[in-house]
DNA sequence: CATGACCCGTATATTAATACCGGTATAAGA
DNA sequence: TCTTATACCGGTATTAATATACGGGTCATG
């Protein structure tokens, strides 16, 4: 076995994660946030839409910094499918 | 251009990051921490030795949880080459 | 000597990050 | 109304890199 494909659960976690980032982005545009984080807009879009379910740590860290959210809060929020309704909304 | 190879700076950042994790591991063995985080020992070793300079966010999150360190502290520590001497040593 | 812990090299399938092209929808302007 | 611009989404393509596994090597400790 060499790197088992991602499980549906992991993909769902990626979708939750992307939804969190998109919510944290608020009114700002993708290109604005992506530029602030130093990543391409395509990458941000992929992560937000869940098409990149397991993004790089430093990419996420840069995005979190640009969005002003905590990495620990992000990890905790997408680890718990329930109770993340108002998470990171501030 | 399709995914520029990692710059030497990014690789150095990976080495700093790995050193931080190794310091946070303390006396515990690699297999112990890797099992607790749900990743393979090879993966943990690669990250610690800097041979995996840009690990996945969720892999790092699982390791940080197993080590009891903060993701924000990790990101901040490896982003600043100076002043991380006693970081995460507690 | 044996065991445990770590390291290194190699191998492999899957994925990340980037880019380009086109499509859709909405809003502003002539 | 027609056009333009902005913003997002989808597919495809390409290289680099992850995550995993195996075999062997080293070094200390028992």
TrEMBL record, chains A, B:
Organism: Thermobifida cellulosilytica TB100
Residue span, HTH cro/C1-type domain: 21-74
UniProt cross-references to Pfam families, sorted A to Z: HTH_31
InterPro entries, A to Z: Cro/C1-type_HTH, Lambda_DNA-bd_dom_sf
Protein name: HTH cro/C1-type domain-containing protein
GO molecular function: DNA binding
Domain of life: Bacteria
CDD domains assigned: HTH_XRE
């Amino acid at each position: 076995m060499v790197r088992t494909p991602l499980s549906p659960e992991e993909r769902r976690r990626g979708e939750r994660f992307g939804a969190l980032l998109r919510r944290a982005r608020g009114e700002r545009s993708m290109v604005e946030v992506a530029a602030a984080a130093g990543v391409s807009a395509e990458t941000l879009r992929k992560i937000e839409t869940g098409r990149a379910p397991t993004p790089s740590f430093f990419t996420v860290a840069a995005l979190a910094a640009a969005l002003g959210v905590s990495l620990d809060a992000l990890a905790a929020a997408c680890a718990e499918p329930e109770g993340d309704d108002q998470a990171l909304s501030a």
